[in-house]
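__Protein archive entry__

___
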Amino acid sequence: MNQEYFMRLALEAAKKGDALYGAVIVKDNEVVAAAYNTVTRDSDPSAHAEVNVIRNLTTKLKNPSLEGYSIYTTGEPCPMCATACVWFGISEIIYGASIQDLISINQAQINISCEEVIAKSFRNIKVTKGILKNECLELFA
């Protein structure tokens, strides 16, 4: 399994959502949770794919710590989602399309990178960008 494999699973999850964003969480090279955006369906502005997948997994684990887990997201985590990754101890964020990429195709975004959020936090989270970027952007074509 490689990063592209896991990102393809996030892409598939995205297609089920209200807005075309998907996320999967991986540990020890195995997908342990997947989710997508349900903001409209749930009337919940925090129901982004990343928040949903974190909620699903921490509820299942009955543990708020996700240290040692990686999250794959089709779009760079917004400041809210990046902060959730910090609070829950995600060890690595891997994303496809950056906030700048999304802004360039007229997707509403808050122009603060996840790396800026992490830099001002108390955690050191590894960030890998641009995995299947074009495929992630094609969700919005």
Notes: Residues 79 and 116 are 9 Å apart (CA to CA). The radius of gyration is 13 Å. The first strand starts at residue 22 and ends at 27.
